[in-house]
Amino acid sequence: MRKALIPVLTVVAALVVIWYGAAVALNSAWAYNKAGRANIELTFSDLVKDTLSQEKPRLPAPHQVGIEIWKTTVQKKITSKRSLVYHGWITLSSTLLGFAIGTSMGILLAVGIVHNRAMDMSVMPWAIASQTIPILAIAPMIIVVLNSIGIQGLLPKAIISAYLSFFPVVVGMVKGLRSPDRMELDLLKTYNATRSETFWKLRLPSSMPYLFASLKIGIAASLVGAIVGELPTGAVQGLGARLLAGSYYGQTIQIWSALLSAAVLAALLVAIINLLQQVTLKRMGMA
Amino acid sequence: MTAQSVISASNLSLTFETADGPVHALKDINLEINKGEFVSFIGPSGCGKTTFLRVAADLEHPTAGQITVNGMSPEEARKRRAYGYVFQAAGLYPWRTIGKNIRLPLEIMGVSKSEQAERVKRVLKLVDLQDFEKKFPWQLSGGMQQRASIARALAFDADILLMDEPFGALDEIVRDHLNEQLLDLWKETQKTICFVTHSIPEAVYLSTKIVVMSPRPGRVSDVIDSTLPRERPLDIRESPEFIAIAHRVREGLRAEHSYD
Amino acid sequence: MTLVFLALLLWATAWFVNVKLADSAQAQRRSIRLLVPTIFGLTIILVWELTVRGLGVPLVILPPPSLVVQTASENLPILWKDFVQTFLKGALRGYVIGCASAILVAILVERYSFLQRGLLPVASFMAALPIIGTAPILVMWFGFDWHSKAAVVVVMVFFPMLINAVAGLRESSLIQQDLMRTYAANAWQTFFKLKLPVAMPFIFNGLKISTTLALIGAIVAEFFGSPIVGMGFRISTSVGQLALDMVWAEIVVAALAGSLFYGVMALLEKGVTFWHPSQRG
Fold first, then answer.
1. What's A258's domain CATH number?
2. B83, C182: Cβ pair inside 8 Å?
3. Residue C173's pLDDT is what?
């Protein structure tokens, strides 16, 4: 871990420097324009100061985004409609609900596929094939259709999130439940174990690494699903809605702060699952 | 006929720094290997036999002492392709046919295409794999893959062959067969062979000289010049001479508490 | 109501047939393994058709498959133009640029271990983020046309492709690298003769994953702004008009495009990595 720290910090520092440089470069056109109209000559330090503090920059500087996030999280009441915490919570709640539904159904289907040959042969090829289909494209339709039959708010977005986490979990769990090898299965046969005992004592524990790998993919997909689900119907709540509103009104700083918050949220969620993974696998001696 | 030294080591040492402290893989090794000899290195794990081979091959660097190969440093010898190395695993590329696998060193060394074809045919005949030139490695058994690996090491006519437990992963019946074939090969090509093994009968059967090593620190505990004749059918392994030499090897290993 | 009853009967019969096929002695044969999921898929479509018509479900909620097919066939020119805009111009170009640059960066990263230790954790981090959120920013920078969609695709496929390519380039075993040393091979020879072929299964894994990401990126990016053509554009406007049959027609096109794209990559993979255990069955 320590070996990686310095290189990672170097790369991150380099990225931040590149970001500042790009901000100056991309915002300079506007700065020169403004100066030209007011007939002022811009020195380099003037240029830098201007490009890093514009109101609607083409590329906001890191500190501008940081300040905006600070203003809309810490300095706003959580119940305010402008608070990023509020919007983040909206997105998070549908993510978590969808993730829970998708994961539990995925695990159930995986158990069915592993134990029933007809299900395996009919459903599994479709589960694998569905990963090549851009499911996310139908998100707007699902929202609108469910809205028209009265299901609004949290549930439609959760359904999209559920769908996106469903298939990775199915494919991963099936692989995991099938991971014990011939020798291990034969041993249980010599103990005359039932299918249920084999499942609980062998298949389920063996599938843990695969499960956690799928959960990490699943939660990232659920978050994306919730965000995209907020795009249609001119939604006004959630991080996706903030992204959309920012892009409609040219509020680039708002777009970037919403995007960064979504990124932080994704990182946190994956980190939590990673922590769970380390703790669980360590206790099982599989870490 | 004076013996011509091919590999010469004096006070050779190699110490690895590990998290648990220094490991003396080799300590003060003094050894002469002459042209045309078949030298086996035998000892338990950690005695340094593989490490010695790797130092000679310039795959590891000694921390003290000297070693020369063909009168030059191991690095020079490696750059001049003075030896062929055979690893424990055949390491054939699954995306190349056997024939193309053998061409691998020849391509790297810039040998012409027609010369390549001729050499491939020649070495495949030496290891009795002529019919398998167009097959892929996964279509061959473990023993055949190792024979292909030996053929590859012979393809560029190096005088020295360094072999690191090449038959370790094979069953005894295949091993016997390959041992015989290796001796025939040695007689025909007159190379100098250094052979690392775990098996006492294998070491005694194949070699003109046996180097017994022991671990912690890795050192030479005995060098036995074999009195067996050059012509060796497999049943020589039941002769009293053979048993005496094997006994001496076993004693050498036991004396240095190699079994602890 | 009879239609619904028919649907249930059909479902039960098809399931029974599938169970019999799956438990039969010939279950492992290739023909049976293709037949069972096909029966399953066809059954779903037929049940969908019968239940929607039987229960009189309004067209603005769920149109029956027959209507979708009809709408598709009546609107082929529009569907084609959308396909060209989103897939050929946006997704494909972004895919090529993104994957090629990821492989080139991977080659650099593998060469210098400092870059490996610094860049890989950052790349894995970026691969888990909702990259699709960069779509509005890229639309602002590159405009409404396919350029911004290609840009979104580049960002989406870059990180997963990079991670896979680096993993592949590191995969050659120590024995094989030692062998190259004994031949006194230089870095280029080792790269082309050993590292690149060994990396191929991983590179193709990344290429396959990226086909899906490319299509999703291009379509969803169009939700943020697009000229009046494109699959994402057509979906969001048709949803607004409640013309759900058109939406489903576009989805069918997207599904076909996605599976064909993936299938082409899988076929290429079979040719290039024929030697890998996963391809030998």
1. 1.10.3720.10
2. yes
3. 82
